[in-house]
Automatic annotation (TrEMBL):
EC annotation from Swiss-Prot or TrEMBL: 2.1.-.-
Organism superkingdom: Bacteria
Main EC class the enzyme belongs to: transferase
Keywords: Methyltransferase, Transferase
UniProt key word Methyltransferase: yes
Protein name, entry field: Class I SAM-dependent methyltransferase
InterPro entries assigned: Methyltransf_25, SAM-dependent_MTases_sf
Methyltransferase domain boundaries: 224-316
Record Gene3D superfamilies: Vaccinia Virus protein VP39 (3.40.50.150)
GO biological process: methylation
Taxonomic source organism: Gracilibacillus marinus
GO MF annotation list: methyltransferase activity
Length: 420
């Protein structure tokens, strides 16, 4: 969708917040009831059963962290906590409809409150005489945990190892890192950095690849720069259509795999470097950055976009594939425009938005990242560096991530002085 049209609609929109109510709609409740009667069987309804438990799975992780970290759950404020971690966590609570915000103060909703003598049991993830709401989120948490940990030889494990569930299983496992959340400082995750590169590859093949192929089908690029190219998912798509492709990847292990993969392709040039340290003396028609901006601080991003200003050709484009927590209104507008705002889609978007809000917490709480991406600050940053957004297209069926097309503001200039 052209950004100019989206912006115009955004300025005139009024929020209906319909996708949240999709969770409680009569039709969804009936379908979920049916899925739960059929239970753990290899039928299409199992996907709905698992899906219907995801929000509660994240809710339990969230509730446990609230009780672990805040003495007064009616009055949660940032205090000396890390602001990005605190705010993205509270945003997750609001997204899950567990937390209410009143200016700088956050309050846990009554239905999620736990009696004082049961708090330590809740933090230990043990059952107790909780309210129905809390008991049901714990039950769903345990169900999802059992599903992601199920032995491959078990009935549940066999279902979960199917292609349709592999990515979901990885993501739900990843979200369990929030169980280690520290509100005061970023922590080291329990996996190595190439985990994200491999998770990205899985997501790309399942959800993004076809959309990307369609998205670029009418476009031709003679030269491409792929920043943070990971395992080369995007390079693969362009490999036979572009004369010169440059991939930059700072991780040694990932870079070595890339070198091996493209050893017979002289038109692909690879650099094992940090994009901030590398200088180019050429221009590119297209610059790709997929799930990579959250590795950089605001200052680093500014330096990067100033660098890109010099090396992006006059009519060139930057394509960013990214998710944003403050994007729900745009999601609705784009979905309505594309005729994808039916009940089932709204239900799917809502669950995925909860996963997204949790992923944003991870982008803030783990040392591997600088800070989560947010749409409004991002927009301001690129505009201040002389760029503008041209188009926004969903990168997957769940409207989780988007391809953001950026170009030089007012057509750019012929002399960008990249040889300075
Ligand atoms: C989440 S992965 C995504 C990979 C690929 N773009 C994709 O979408 O499949 C991000 C990659 O960016 C790399 N990266 C992060 N910061 C970087 C930097 N400053 N310079 C170069 N590479 C970077 C990481 O090592 C990682 O492999």
């Amino acid at each position: 969708m052209q950004y100019s049209l989206l912006k115009e609609q955004y300025e005139n929109h009024y929020t209906q917040n319909q996708n949240r109510s999709a969770e409680q709609s009569r039709r969804m409740t009936m379908l979920k009831g049916l899925a739960s009667t059929i239970g753990i069987r290899d039928t299409p309804l199992f996907q709905l059963l698992l899906f219907s438990k995801i929000k509660n799975y994240i809710r339990f992780i969230t509730l446990r962290q609230i009780y672990k970290n805040f003495e007064d759950v009616r009055n949660m404020t940032v205090g000396f906590m890390h602001p990005n971690i605190f705010h993205s966590f509270m945003n997750l609570g609001v997204q899950l409809e567990m937390v209410e915000q009143e200016s700088h103060l956050y309050r846990l909703r009554e239905s999620y409150m736990v009696e004082e003598d049961m708090v330590s049991r809740l933090v230990r993830m043990e059952s107790s005489n909780y309210s129905n709401t809390v008991a049901s989120i714990l039950e769903d948490y345990l169900f999802v945990t059992e599903a992601i940990e199920a032995k491959p030889s078990s009935k549940l494990g066999r279902i979960m190892n199917q292609q349709a569930y592999i990515y979901m299983k990885e993501v739900l496992t990843y979200l369990q890192e929030i169980n280690q959340l520290n509100f005061f400082e970023q922590i080291t995750p329990s996996f190595t950095e190439d985990f994200y590169t491999d998770l990205g590859e899985l997501a790309f093949n399942i959800y993004t690849k076809e959309n990307y192929q369609q998205y670029i089908s009418q476009k031709q690029f003679a030269s491409i720069l792929d920043i943070g190219c990971g395992n080369g998912n995007y390079i693969d798509i362009h490999i036979n259509h572009s004369a010169h492709i440059v991939g930059v990847e700072r991780q040694e292990k990932v870079y070595e795999k890339l070198q091996q993969k493209y050893r017979d392709y002289p038109h692909i040039q690879l650099f094992q470097e940090d994009i901030l340290d590398i200088e180019f003396n050429q221009e590119f028609d297209m610059i790709n950055m997929s799930y990579m901006l959250f590795y950089l601080t605001v200052e680093e991003k500014e330096a990067l976009f100033n660098k890109l200003k010099k090396i992006l050709g006059k009519n060139g484009i930057i394509v960013i594939c990214q998710y944003y927590p403050d994007f729900e209104v745009y999601q609705e507008l784009i979905a309505r425009y594309n005729g994808k705002w039916g009940l089932m889609n709204r239900y799917k978007f809502d669950i995925c938005n909860s996963i997204l809000a949790a992923e944003v917490v991870l982008n803030n709480m783990l040392v591997d990242f600088a800070q989560a991406e947010e749409w409004e600050p991002f927009l301001q940053l690129i505009e201040s560096c002389g760029f503008e957004v041209e188009e926004i297209v969903p990168a997957d069926e769940t409207y989780y991530s988007y391809f953001i097309t950026i170009k030089h503001k007012s057509g750019g200039s012929d002399d960008k002085g990249y040889r300075d």
